[in-house]
Predict the structure.
Amino acid sequence: MDTDDGGAAGGRPCVDGSGCRDVLHKIHSVASQIASDAERAEHIIATHADDKSQDVASLAGSLSTILDTLTDAQSALGNELAQMSSDRDTHRMEGDGRLFRCIHRVGGAVGGRAAEPAMPVPVGDGGKRACVAISPAAAAATANSKTATPRPMNKPKKYGRPSLSGLPEDVFSHLDSFVTSIVVSRLAKVNKETHQKATDQNLGMFRHFTLTSDEEETYRKVKGVREMQHMGKIQTAHIESSSVPACLSRCLEASRLTLTRLTVIAPDQPRSAPRAPIDMRRAPALPTHFPNITHMTIQSAAWLSHLRYRQWTFPNLRALRVGSIYESADLMALLDAMPMIERLEAACIGFYDEEQEAFLALLGGRPHLTTVTGLQTYMEECYPSYRFGCENEVKKAVDANWSKQDNEGVPKKLGFVVPRLWIGVDYGQQKAADVEAFRKWAEEVNCEVKWELGEDGGMNIDCSSSGATALPAPGGFFGDFATQMAAKAKTVCLYVGGSPLHESWRDKLAFPNAKKLFIEDHEMGVSASEAEDSIPTWLANDDADGERAACSGFPSVEHLSVGFLSYLSVDEMCEHPSKLSLLLGGLRSVRQVSFSSPIWCLSAACELLSYLPVTHLDEVTFLDTPEESTGVHIEGGLGCPRIQCMCSGRMSFDRKARVQSFLRLVLTLRPVSVRLSLRADRSDLQGADEAPRIRDLRGFACECFEEVEAHYSVTGGKIEDTRGGYYYTLNVQLAAK
């Protein structure tokens, strides 16, 4: 019997399934070797790409001949598989099914390798490059007969670097959604093709302008518009900037006929931050018309001023969105340039007296206006200087247009912002009739009305009115509004020392999202009994049987600020159980405590800290401590939470006794670290010039350290000269040993 493998594969038919599987296994092995050798040949050819020898030149012809042979073999195998597949459809046998699947897998592997597209290989030729079509199968035929080590067949295929020039125009035009305009300008300089696609008027990327806050300084350095010559037909602009770069203003003015949407978002800044300067080198010109802008967002005060200064007008604008505005000139000038405006949305519009009257008169002169939000109002007349309720004035301003028969079916919307909801003993009594009449009018003109808390998201619970009669919690709108806003409030201030809120508030006020709780007094000198009596029993969470339980009305409070201990002694606070201890005993999430008013008795502060249910506090801050050298006594069994860092307010050098009191408190509470801050006027320090004054201040710092050096070591210290030597600031950091 002939046992030659080649004969079995080439001339002897398969008499059973096992014989065919053996042959297929060998075909699979040969295919793996061919693929491995092809990869090796590819590497060799690439290495000798610049070789001009006769061997390399003749190799191409040999590989082409071998490729033809392998192609014929693969074609024959494919025909055989097709015939077997046809036979299988006629004779469906389990053995044939397994055989077909096996042959199909092997045939697919070999066919896939043989049918791979030719890979261009550069060949040096006098500085020019030619491409020789080399397939992996043909390259393998040049290998010698030595057995090659099989390699895995799932090696990733190399496709080369991606090309921007090869992207279709409709794909290329969307790249501006992922990059800013500075990056787009760089893409336009890659080559001629990308330049044409980027600057195309219909699909180009300069149709949309984008500037982020970190690029603002780059645009400020641009001197002329020549560097931005392709940005003269902008359709939409999204800008994050607190200032107005001159080049950007010129580009927008150049695009006035194509611009349809403008969005300016200013980085987060405090309300008291100074305005960015306006470029005064460009004198106000004739009005610049933007006829195609229909939607605009301007949240930067500098941009509002710039639009007024440059006299931009928007004859077809429909929707305007602004941030918080407390000066009327810029907004009124902008509204005056928008005769067709329909929606005005603001975070808060806080005008008073004459400014408010002029603003509302301007709103009344806009016949297409249907939506105004962000109008500042107050539910209670808590401060005489604040505008008390502007709802009726807004009604008078817009009623002439909104009551017209043509506008009956048009949906309308008014939004009011309450900067801080103030709930006192007579909450809801002063404005109840006015609000109900206003809501009835809104129903008649098809207007949706909403009241919301301001950006501060705060509420005041006023229990400081002495001798006042607490009225029951109102129902209807005022009761529902208080409940909804309490659930959203981020900060809550409880004023103590007077009449507590009525018991009927128990089921209406809960503060699940409040992160800060302030306990204050309106007038200094509140006694412990007055503070105790003014805390509502429902806020201390009495249960149905009259038993006291820890308050659960503030489950998320992390920062507690106490400002009513100015004249309290520890003896006044030691009556247990007290509503104050129950109120503080429910603050299970508190991490920081601040004593925001001077403390007369340090033991009272320790007593209050002991009410907290936590075992650890990140930070405790004392604004001021008493001058008296009274010791700090903590009763047995009474413990305060472990304090990570204890801080002082900026104490005055002329009252050294207060600094010493603070250090005694440090030795009592034993925090892990201490930060002490001291301010000294130059008149309080010895010496006529800076050097002796600093020595005097440094000497006092050493005296302070001597008091605590047994338990603490100095980790840092700094003396700063402020306002040209008018006063000095000493900052010292201590760490427990």
Residues 618-737 form a domain with the Translation Initiation Factor IF3 fold (CATH 3.30.110.10).
